[in-house]
Write a structure and sequence with these properties.
single chain; 333 residues; alpha/beta; Rossmann fold; Dihydrodipicolinate Reductase, domain 2; six-stranded parallel beta sheet; 27% strand
Length: 333
């Protein structure tokens, strides 16, 4: 899908009647404007039909190929289990569709390289579904850092903890490439690319530990070394929600109550010289809105693409692999 060919609304196809599509993607699509959900596909037609009725999607179909092959679809949102991301992303790219794939884009760095090669060869746009870089709060953080508000950045301390509400969940499955690091630990890893100045394709030393269920990690903490800078991350599927993040510098700190999916009530706090400045940046009420607004503009030829998967996905995959290798949980005896 090359820029500048669309005149009206971007027509989206959704692969997977997943909770994330219902709770985040579709509300963001409605708020963003300029696009609409035309098709939703599931392996279970009844489930897809129920999803379409509840969410106002034009049509439900059984099987993902129908969405990929449809001439009435401009862009595809992939909300499938992690283990299915790469194969369906490749099929959508090869069909000329723009793709927004849920994170992580792939389950390994080798798989990531292969998918990015397809995106490059086809010329189709590909985004990994980290939407925070598009948001006003994140732009404000980068503006403060570039202006020297906290001096030289030394450390990013960023957890992503939440408690699964179900005992049976795809995120607990090794076969489906679940786990805390893949599901939410990837957020601090991606944020580190934005706020730390390193451009290394892989981190230096990684130390940490993890606990697991015999298939995947369910709680991981790690320190990732980048020379004079470091990332301290924690991720869990069993703890109370916590995403409170700090960017630490030689002259101060930036505190973020919610760096990844901020609401208008969330705060950005600049601490320097014993004083605090509190900001509540203007943000969309839905975290996906800014990203989708941008994608729609790109597909209409109104903007150049930003935050493409090619810019960040491979570095993230390599870092996640390094953390997983250093923190592999013991297998229960």
């Amino acid at each position: 899908m090359s820029a500048g060919r669309l005149k009206g609304d971007v027509r989206w196809g959704v692969l997977g009647a997943a909770r994330i599509a219902r709770s985040s993607f579709l509300p963001g699509l409605r708020e963003a404007g300029g696009g609409r959900a035309v098709l939703v596909a599931s392996r279970d037609l009844a489930r897809a039909e129920a999803f379409a009725r509840a969410e106002g999607v034009d049509e439900a179909v059984e099987g993902y190929e129908t969405v990929i092959e449809s001439p009435d679809i401009d862009a595809v949102y992939i909300a499938l289990p992690n283990s299915h991301h790469a194969s369906w992303t490749v099929k959508a790219l090869e069909a000329g569709k723009a793709v927004l794939c849920e994170k992580p884009l792939c389950v390994s760095s080798a798989e990531t390289e292969a998918v990015l090669a397809v995106a490059a060869s086809t010329g189709s746009w590909l985004w990994e579904s980290f939407v925070f870089p598009f948001q006003a709060q994140h732009r404000r953080v980068l503006e403060l850092l570039a202006g020297g508000a906290i001096g030289e950045v030394l450390e990013l301390v960023s957890p992503y903890h939440f408690k699964l509400s179900r005992s049976v969940d795809i995120r607990l499955s090794g076969e489906l490439a679940g786990g805390a690091l893949a599901d939410v630990g990837c957020y601090p890893v991606r944020l580190a690319q934005e706020v730390l100045s390193t451009h290394d394709p892989a981190p230096g030393e990684v130390v940490g530990f993890a606990t697991g269920n015999g298939e995947v990690d369910i709680d991981t903490v790690a320190i990732v070394n980048y020379g004079v800078q470091r990332l301290v991350l924690g991720c869990s599927l069993t703890r109370a929600l916590d995403v409170f993040t700090r960017v630490l510098g030689t002259e101060g700190q930036i505190h973020l109550s919610s760096p990844f999916h901020p609401a208008p009530s969330d705060a950005l706090v600049l601490r320097r010289d014993g004083k605090e400045t509190v900001e509540h940046p203007t943000v969309d009420t839905r975290s996906f809105s800014a990203a989708l607004r941008h994608i729609h503009s790109v597909l209409r030829g109104e903007q150049a693409p930003a935050h493409l998967a090619a810019e960040s996905a491979l570095r993230s995959a390599r870092t996640i692999e390094a953390i997983a290798a250093a923190c592999r949980p013991p297998h229960p005896g």
